[in-house]
TrEMBL record:
This is DUF503 domain-containing protein. PANTHER family: DUF503 DOMAIN-CONTAINING PROTEIN, HYPOTHETICAL CYTOSOLIC PROTEIN. It comes from the Bacteria. The lineage of its organism: Bacteria, Bacillati, Bacillota, Clostridia, Lachnospirales. It comes from Candidatus Enterocloster excrementipullorum.
Length: 95
């Protein structure tokens, strides 16, 4: 059995966020939308004590590289359209 594991880390900047509670609401909403729309694991993976910056980690299993790339492209486009936060960086890896 062979499959691919796609991993993506998205760093977001939300300048209007002024508290960790407000950040949690934004991140929790986005993670819920990602999880419900795609069959992936998603979590806040870094900078959890910084008010205006969030790091989201996403992992998925796919049958082949093209399917995994397509899924990650779709998720990235969804994140861009689902939040007002600016995407600072995106790191992707295929295993």
């Amino acid at each position: 059995m062979e499959f691919k594991i796609a991993v993506m880390e998205i760093k977001l900047y939300a300048p209007w966020v002024h508290s960790l509670k407000e950040k949690r609401m934004v991140v929790k909403s986005l993670l819920g939308k990602i999880r419900s729309r795609y069959a992936v694991s998603a979590a806040e993976t870094g900078l959890q004590d910084v008010h205006q910056t969030a790091v989201i980690g996403i992992a998925a299993i796919a049958a082949h590289s093209a399917q995994a790339d397509s899924m990650m492209d779709d998720i990235l486009a969804f994140v861009e359209s689902s939040t007002e936060a600016e995407i600072l960086s995106v790191d992707r890896e295929m295993r």
